[in-house]
Specification:
Elements lengths: L3 H8 L2 H11 L5 H13 L2 H9 L3 H7 L3 E2 L20 H13 L7 H16 L7 H14 L1 H6 L15 H9 L16 E7 L4 E7 L2 E2 H6 L6 H4 L21 E6 L9 H10 L11 E3 L4 E2 L3 E4 L3 E2 L3 H5 L12 H13 L4
Parallel strand pairs: 2-8
Antiparallel strand pairs: 1-9, 2-3, 4-7, 5-6, 5-8
Helix pairs in contact: 3-8, 6-7, 6-8, 7-8
C-alpha cells in the first residue's frame, strides 16, 4: 500500500473496525443495521490475517477445522448481496477506488467511510443512510482483497428480487410481520406455523417452522432442492448442520430480522460460540446465532455464511478456561480434531 489512506487502513485491527461500524450505526438505515454487522462477522479481519501469516495456509485451515468457502477474493461483487445497499455497489466501488488514488491525509475510519458513503449517495441519487453500510463493506473489501483485485472486479450489483425490490421501510416492516394464524390463532392450543426466510450464497427461499421449533429442525424438513449440490456442508435443508447440539458450529447464521422472536442464548451456546470464534454479541437475543439452539416464535429472516471454523482459541484467544462438552459422535470427532490441532500451543 503506497499512500497515507491505504497505509493507515492496513494498520487498523478488527477491534478498531468494530468500533467504527458501531459508531456509524445511527447513520445507517435500519434495513442494513444488522446486515452490516453480520457481514463483518462473516469476513473477520483477524481470521484473514491469521491465515495470511501462516507458513502453510492449507495446514492452518485444517488446524481450525475450516469448512466451506472462506474469503473475499472471489466474492468482491457478491459477498454483500444480502445488504439493501448492495444495489449501490457500483457507486461505492468507484468511490473507494477514487479515495485510494487520492493523496489526501487519513481522516479517521468513521469519517472516511462517511465521506465515501456521501460520494456514492450523490452519484446514485439516494440517501447516505442507504450507502453508509455498503461503504464500510467496500473499504474493508479494499483491505482484504487489495486495490488491484478490487479494480479488476466488474463492479456489478445483482438485481434485487422478492421483498428486496421494495423500499427500505417496507422491507423492515415485512421482516417484522408474522404469518397469519387464522381465525383462532390467538389460542394457545393452536399449532402455530411461521416462516424462515433465508439467503445463502448459492440459494435463497423460505421454509416453514412450527412455534418454538429450532431453525435447523425446520430446515432439515425442506426437500425442495438438492441442497448438497449447492453447498457440500448441507446434508438436509439449506442450513448446514452436523450435530444439532452446539458442538460443531456448522449451523451459525446471521439474523436480518426477527431476532426478538428467537429464544434467548443459552449458557452452552454462549460458551461454544466463543470456541468457534464467531464474535456473538452479548445480548440475550443477538443477531449471530447457532441455528440448532435458536427456537422461533414468529417469522425470521436469516443469512447463511458460506463457511465455518473453530478459531476462538487460535485467533480470538478468549477461551483458555473453556471445557468442551460434546454429546454426539460427530462432536466427539471434532473434539479430537481440536485437541490434536491445538497440541503444543
Amino acid at each position: 500500500m503506497n499512500n497515507a489512506f491505504l497505509s493507515e487502513l492496513e494498520m487498523l485491527n478488527e477491534s478498531q473496525w468494530q468500533q467504527a461500524v458501531e459508531e456509524l450505526l445511527p447513520a445507517i438505515h435500519e434495513v442494513d443495521r444488522n446486515a452490516v454487522q453480520i457481514w463483518f462477522r462473516f469476513y473477520p479481519l483477524d481470521l484473514v490475517r491469521y491465515l495470511e501469516s501462516a507458513e502453510n495456509i492449507e495446514d492452518a485451515m485444517k488446524g481450525i477445522v475450516m469448512s466451506g468457502d472462506f474469503g473475499l477474493l472471489d466474492k468482491i461483487d457478491t459477498s454483500h448481496r444480502f445488504l439493501f445497499g448492495h444495489r449501490f455497489w457500483p457507486q461505492v466501488k468507484a468511490a473507494v477506488e477514487a479515495r485510494a488514488a487520492s493523496c489526501e491525509p487519513f481522516a479517521g475510519l468513521p469519517a472516511e467511510i462517511s465521506s465515501i458513503a456521501k460520494t456514492a449517495a450523490v452519484s446514485a441519487k439516494t440517501s447516505e443512510t442507504l450507502t453508509t453500510a455498503i461503504a464500510a463493506v467496500g473499504v474493508m473489501t479494499l483491505v482484504q482483497a487489495g486495490l488491484d483485485d478490487l479494480k479488476k472486479a466488474p463492479g456489478i450489483a445483482a438485481k434485487p428480487e422478492g421483498v428486496m425490490t421494495g423500499p427500505p421501510d417496507q422491507i423492515v416492516m415485512e421482516r417484522a410481520k408474522d404469518d397469519s394464524q387464522g381465525l383462532f390463532g390467538f389460542l394457545k392450543t393452536v399449532d402455530k406455523k411461521f416462516s424462515v426466510h433465508f439467503k445463502a450464497f448459492g440459494s435463497e427461499g423460505t421454509f416453514p417452522i412450527i412455534n418454538e421449533e429450532e431453525i435447523t429442525s425446520a430446515s432439515q424438513k425442506d426437500r425442495d432442492r438438492d441442497w448438497q449440490a449447492l453447498d457440500s456442508r448441507c446434508w438436509e435443508g439449506p442450513v448446514p448442520i452436523e450435530c444439532t447440539s452446539a458442538s460443531c458450529g456448522t449451523c451459525w447464521i446471521g439474523v436480518l430480522g426477527g431476532q426478538e422472536k428467537l429464544s434467548d442464548v443459552s449458557t452452552r451456546e454462549r460458551r461454544q460460540m466463543k470456541l468457534f470464534g464467531h464474535d456473538q454479541p452479548d445480548s440475550a437475543k443477538p443477531f449471530i446465532r447457532l441455528a440448532c439452539q435458536a427456537e422461533a416464535s414468529g417469522n425470521v429472516t436469516i443469512v447463511i455464511p458460506p463457511w465455518n471454523a473453530v478459531f476462538g482459541k487460535r485467533v480470538r484467544k478468549n477461551i483458555e478456561d473453556l471445557e468442551l462438552e460434546p454429546v454426539t459422535s460427530s462432536a466427539a470427532k471434532l473434539r479430537e480434531t481440536i485437541k490434536n490441532a491445538t497440541a503444543g500451543e
